[in-house]
Amino acid sequence: MTSVKVDDAGKRRGRIVVMTDRMSPGGVSHFILQVATHFAGEGHQVDVLSLAAGEWDHRLADAGIRRLRLTDSAALRALRSADVIHCQQRFLGLIAAALGRGSRTVEHVHNVLTDHRGLSYRTQRIVAVSGAVRASLLANFPHVTAERVSVVHNGVRKLGATIAAYEDRPYDLVNVARFDEQKDPLLFLELVKELSERRESLRCLWISPGTGPLQDDFLRRRQELLLEDVVQISVGDTHAHTRAQVARSRMFLLTSRWEGLPLSALEALASGTPVATTPCGEIAHIVNERSCGVAIDPQADDRADRINDVLTNRTSWNRLAHRAFAVADDFSEVRMTEQIRHIYAGIAPVFSKVPSRHLDSQRTGGRG
């Protein structure tokens, strides 16, 4: 039997089911943790329903969030009683619709996708993480109308009120990404090699939330390029330590082939770390328009020179770092969760107002 959560005034709180394939390391799972802990902290009932076990399941448990498997008997009850079902992959939206819950469903689109046009995005509320993702949806899925798609940028928290100085950052370049084709870790090595020929004592760091199919290729190529003493690797580190390492780096080098709006790059901005990026999505537009880093063309002969110019010019670096820190205010976690609340409220009025008092039947935290 599904319990009903009420506040001190006897008013019912909302029920949210967040659906995902699995809690694997990365930006989508971190977003789930942000949303789940935020709304649970306001007293709403939040369950995360996944199809399979994931490496980050323990982070849900640490935060006091119940995780359900689709095969659990409680999962069907939760779906049928939910005020909002928030799906992180498009095939999960089909499951929700098949259960007759399409009117309660939000589909969150984290990346640019163009295949399976006939079956995808059949619910009425779609959230895109960037304007570029929204434009791709409207261009590639003719049945998706503009009024159905809202843009909610990923949100981040600043670590403090100030940023670390240039001389207090021991790493020159850092990236936080998986070892897979989308993130193009081999391009990272190629750029580092070119930079190492232009400057001495280069120190770089590749942080991966987990293992990936290109990890062995990365290690082999690092050895071939004689970069074993230049590029350090960290796999499976905590989120807190990862953010600390990015804050201790002079530039965040994003080498992805395509992106929605990478949380890791936004967290770099929130640390006052300028971003150098390939033309992989909206982050390149932000960097160019807001002057908080440099955009690089992976095919250009001067691709490494643009990065080197910033690393060797402290005046330029200082200007970009402070611009990055300021730009991050436009991508705050508070703004993101308020936009999500507004979308939820369009489905269920119970989310229209912030509860005056928090209920602590679900703990929040566990972000490290």
Helix content: 25-40%
Shape: elongated
Work out the strand percent: 15-25%
The largest pleated sheet is described as: 7 strands, parallel
Task: Offer a few descriptive terms.
7-stranded parallel beta sheet, 13 strands, 6-stranded parallel beta sheet, disordered C terminus, 368 residues, alpha/beta
Task: Provide the fold topology.
Layout: E1 15-20, H1 27-41, E2 45-50, H2 57-62, E3 66-69, H3 73-81, E4 84-87, H4 90-98, E5 105-109, E6 125-128, H5 131-140, E7 149-151, E8 171-176, H6 185-196, E9 204-208, H7 215-224, E10 231-235, H8 239-247, E11 249-254, H9 263-270, E12 275-277, H10 282-290, E13 293-295, H11 303-312, H12 314-327, H13 333-345
Parallel strand pairs: 1-2, 1-4, 2-3, 4-5, 5-6, 6-7, 8-9, 8-11, 9-10, 11-12, 12-13
Describe this entry's structure for a reader.
It is built from 13 helices and 13 strands. The longest helix has 15 residues. The protein has 368 residues and is an alpha/beta fold. Helix 6 packs across helix 11. The C terminus is likely disordered. 36% of the residues lie in helices and 16% in strands. It is elongated.
Concise overview:
This protein has 368 residues and is of the alpha/beta class. It has 13 helices and 13 strands.
